[in-house]
Every structure is written in structure tokens, then in C-alpha cells.
Design a protein that fits this description.
four-stranded antiparallel β-sheet, 50% helix, alpha+beta
């Protein structure tokens, strides 16, 4: 089960001792769907590697409206960089969407890798930057209907696992707008 985790670390020249230290200081967690891993406005004490399952990060407004920041699945690292870099509370909640197995690691490792700087930290930052730029382009250049169509093309398995509320929150629209889009598409086919 840890093979993806170990392979990624080996690729960035972590020694067997380094990997063993990370594994021994991590906590293997088996979580049910809708389990809140990290709450909005809390300081992050951990970062995560997803071994199985599906999670999402979401922002909740003071009016109770949720916006999905990102989805995470097997093989993804989940790090709240804003909190790490600025020593701030997390601006979002991290929650499981399906039964999930993950490794929870102390956030101190991210701080150490950042201060070195370790090539693995750079890899994590670059990966996050690419995700952010793709999401920004997605939100700015496409209409809501186009965003939904692209989402369905790129993530057919993910779409089947999510509610319309979750998909709409990721697309930056209401579930009512999503329902209208789906009806328009049905009429065209």
C-alpha cells in the first residue's frame, strides 16, 4: 500500500533511512466518507499523502456557501502552503468524499524541506502551481457550460462519485445553474 509513497520519495533521492523515518513518524488513517481531516481557520499540524480514496478542499463563506478549491485522489500530496509559508490558519476545510486511506505526516517536515531547500519541496510547490494555473485558466476562459463539459470529459470517474452540489461548487456556479446546463445538454443530444 505504501509503494506509491515510497516510489515518489525515492525518485527525489530520499534515502532508505529518510523514508523509514517519515513512515515511522506518520500516522496511517482509515477514514469514512465526509470525515473532516482539517478544518478551515485551524493551524495545520499535518500534511497528507493519499493512498486510496477521494478528498476535497473547500472554502466556506460566512453565509454558508461552499466553494470547492480542489479534489485530491490516490497518489496526491495535500499541503496547505498558504499556512506553511505565511504561518497562517488554513483558509479551507479538507474532507473525505469516499472511504479514504492516507498518511498523516507532521508539518515540521515541510518546514525543514522549505528551509534547506529540499528538491522535494520544490516539486510539491511546482505541482501546486500547475494545478492553480490550470484552475485559473479553466475558470477565466470558459463559460459555465464549457467548464462542465470539460470537467465531465477530464474526470468521468470523479463526476460519478460527486453530488451536483459538489460539482457546481467546483465549477463556481450554483446547483440550479448546473441543473439548467445539464438540461440544455440533454436537449442537444
Amino acid at each position: 500500500m505504501l509503494s506509491d509513497f515510497i516510489n515518489q520519495l525515492q525518485h527525489y533521492n530520499f534515502t532508505a533511512d529518510d523514508i523509514e523515518k517519515l513512515i515511522s513518524s506518520s500516522k496511517l488513517e482509515y477514514l469514512k466518507p465526509k470525515h473532516v481531516i482539517a478544518k478551515q481557520n485551524d493551524h495545520s499540524k499535518s500534511f497528507y499523502f493519499l493512498l486510496e480514496g477521494l478528498c476535497h478542499a473547500s472554502y466556506l463563506t460566512v453565509h454558508g456557501k461552499a466553494f470547492n478549491k480542489e479534489f485530491y485522489w490516490k497518489g496526491d500530496w495535500v499541503v496547505g502552503f498558504e499556512g506553511v509559508i505565511n504561518n497562517e490558519k488554513s483558509p479551507y476545510t479538507l474532507e473525505t468524499l469516499t472511504a479514504t486511506t492516507l498518511l498523516s505526516l507532521p508539518i515540521e517536515y515541510i518546514h525543514q524541506w522549505r528551509s534547506l531547500p529540499h528538491p522535494f519541496y520544490l516539486k510539491l510547490i511546482e505541482t501546486q502551481l500547475v494545478y492553480k494555473e490550470r484552475k485559473e485558466r479553466f475558470m477565466l476562459l470558459y463559460s459555465p457550460q464549457s467548464r462542465y463539459e470539460i470537467f465531465c470529459q477530464n474526470y468521468p470517474d470523479l463526476r460519478a462519485q460527486l453530488s451536483d452540489y459538489q460539482v457546481a461548487a467546483y465549477l463556481g456556479i450554483t446547483h440550479i445553474s448546473l441543473s439548467r446546463i445539464k438540461n440544455r445538454i440533454r436537449k442537444l443530444t
